[in-house]
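Recap from last week: sequence in, structure out.
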Amino acid sequence: MSIFVKRKIRDGDRQGLQQSAEREFKRQFFGLLLVIVTWSLAMGWLLALATNAHSATPPVEIGTVDVVPAQYQLGQELYLENCSTCHIALPPAVLPTQTWKNLLQDSQHYGAQLQPLVDPPRILVWKYLSTFSRVQRDDEETPYRLSNSRYFKALHPGVKLPRPVQLGSCVSCHPSATDYNFRRLTAEWK
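Predicted structure tokens:
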């Protein structure tokens, strides 16, 4: 055999091997593509099922201003149990931390003599109030009235507040305030 013939056979073998490798690559590529498409369809289907199941349940309205993590929920419940029996319980964010601290320690409460909370309920209420209240600036006096609280004013920009601001006035704009829901507003404020 001549060298030319041997070389042609080797070139043919190379081409055959190359074509075989290309076919194998295409087969693996399309196999991988099929797996990805199948996986995507399956995940989309599962996500659609999960979304439909989730949307079938009515949304839970968050009544408080902040979502309260589990470790503070008992403190919030105790706060509401002790404070909303005589008046609307305020969200902790409307007064600074120092105000809440002083109110918890003082048995004189806006002209009424109260039985002070004792530990451990007092500690739980304090953790809730201190976590969700605001810091007081060094140059400001501790406000005990809503109308003196810069946080209350900041949360009500442009709102003409009655004078004096009283806890019962909250209901005029927040009809569910007695249920500790300050997110629901009357139609005029939406």
